[in-house]
Amino acid sequence: MAEEKILAEGTTIDVAGSADEKKAKVKQVRYIFKDPEKGWFEKEKDNVRVTKYYRTQKEAIEAAKTHIKNSGLPGSIVIQSKTGKIRANSKVSAAKK
Fold first, then answer.
1. Ordered DSSP codes for the chain
2. Containing domain of residue 75, as a range?
3. Which of 52, 68, 70, 84 is an S-S bond match for 92, by CB 3.0 to 4.6 Å?
4. Considering its fold, how many domains does the chain have in total?
5. Single pTM value for the model
Protein backbone atom coordinates (compact mmCIF):
# COMPACT_ATOMS: atom_id res chain seq x y z
CA MET A 1 0.00 0.00 0.00
CA ALA A 2 1.30 3.43 -0.93
CA GLU A 3 2.09 6.02 1.70
CA GLU A 4 -0.26 9.02 1.64
CA LYS A 5 1.07 12.57 1.93
CA ILE A 6 -0.74 15.88 2.09
CA LEU A 7 0.57 18.30 -0.52
CA ALA A 8 0.20 22.02 -0.85
CA GLU A 9 -2.33 23.23 -3.42
CA GLY A 10 -0.90 23.36 -6.92
CA THR A 11 1.80 20.77 -6.19
CA THR A 12 2.06 17.95 -8.70
CA ILE A 13 3.71 14.58 -8.36
CA ASP A 14 4.48 11.84 -10.85
CA VAL A 15 3.07 8.70 -9.27
CA ALA A 16 3.84 6.37 -12.15
CA GLY A 17 7.58 7.07 -12.23
CA SER A 18 9.74 9.44 -14.18
CA ALA A 19 9.37 10.03 -17.91
CA ASP A 20 12.65 8.17 -18.49
CA GLU A 21 11.31 5.12 -16.64
CA LYS A 22 8.12 5.14 -18.72
CA LYS A 23 10.09 5.54 -21.94
CA ALA A 24 12.32 2.59 -21.06
CA LYS A 25 9.31 0.27 -20.64
CA VAL A 26 7.75 1.16 -23.99
CA LYS A 27 8.99 -0.50 -27.13
CA GLN A 28 7.93 -0.58 -30.73
CA VAL A 29 7.13 -3.67 -32.73
CA ARG A 30 7.27 -3.48 -36.52
CA TYR A 31 6.05 -6.24 -38.84
CA ILE A 32 7.30 -7.10 -42.32
CA PHE A 33 4.73 -8.84 -44.56
CA LYS A 34 4.46 -9.86 -48.21
CA ASP A 35 1.50 -8.68 -50.27
CA PRO A 36 1.33 -10.82 -53.44
CA GLU A 37 0.24 -7.87 -55.58
CA LYS A 38 2.00 -4.84 -54.05
CA GLY A 39 5.25 -6.23 -52.66
CA TRP A 40 6.76 -6.15 -49.17
CA PHE A 41 5.43 -3.77 -46.56
CA GLU A 42 6.26 -2.65 -43.08
CA LYS A 43 3.75 -1.64 -40.44
CA GLU A 44 3.57 -0.91 -36.74
CA LYS A 45 1.94 -3.36 -34.33
CA ASP A 46 -1.80 -2.72 -33.88
CA ASN A 47 -1.77 -0.27 -36.78
CA VAL A 48 -4.08 -1.00 -39.68
CA ARG A 49 -2.37 1.45 -42.01
CA VAL A 50 0.65 0.25 -43.97
CA THR A 51 3.59 2.63 -43.71
CA LYS A 52 4.93 2.00 -47.22
CA TYR A 53 5.37 -0.74 -49.81
CA TYR A 54 8.85 -1.87 -50.89
CA ARG A 55 10.15 -3.90 -53.82
CA THR A 56 12.27 -6.20 -51.64
CA GLN A 57 12.08 -7.62 -48.15
CA LYS A 58 15.51 -6.18 -47.40
CA GLU A 59 14.29 -2.63 -48.15
CA ALA A 60 11.31 -3.12 -45.83
CA ILE A 61 13.56 -4.39 -43.02
CA GLU A 62 15.96 -1.45 -43.38
CA ALA A 63 13.02 0.99 -43.30
CA ALA A 64 11.68 -0.64 -40.12
CA LYS A 65 15.11 -0.37 -38.46
CA THR A 66 15.31 3.30 -39.42
CA HIS A 67 11.83 4.04 -38.02
CA ILE A 68 12.68 2.37 -34.71
CA LYS A 69 16.04 4.13 -34.38
CA ASN A 70 14.54 7.53 -35.23
CA SER A 71 11.78 7.11 -32.64
CA GLY A 72 14.25 7.06 -29.76
CA LEU A 73 12.65 3.89 -28.36
CA PRO A 74 13.96 0.33 -28.51
CA GLY A 75 11.96 -2.12 -30.56
CA SER A 76 11.82 -5.34 -32.50
CA ILE A 77 11.10 -6.41 -36.03
CA VAL A 78 9.01 -9.49 -36.79
CA ILE A 79 9.64 -10.79 -40.31
CA GLN A 80 7.27 -13.11 -42.11
CA SER A 81 8.29 -15.33 -45.00
CA LYS A 82 6.47 -15.33 -48.35
CA THR A 83 4.28 -18.15 -47.00
CA GLY A 84 3.23 -16.13 -43.96
CA LYS A 85 5.23 -17.99 -41.31
CA ILE A 86 7.37 -15.93 -38.93
CA ARG A 87 10.96 -16.51 -40.01
CA ALA A 88 12.83 -14.02 -37.84
CA ASN A 89 12.45 -11.69 -34.89
CA SER A 90 15.24 -9.18 -34.34
CA LYS A 91 15.76 -6.54 -31.69
CA VAL A 92 16.74 -2.98 -32.56
CA SER A 93 18.10 -0.50 -30.04
CA ALA A 94 17.19 3.16 -30.16
CA ALA A 95 19.58 5.72 -31.60
CA LYS A 96 21.63 7.53 -28.97
CA LYS A 97 20.99 11.25 -28.74
1. -PPP----TT----TT--HHHHHHH--EEEEEEEETTTEEEEEETT--S--EEESSHHHHHHHHHHHHHHHTS-EEEEEE-TTS-EEEEEEEPPPP-
2. 27-92
3. 68
4. 1
5. 0.67
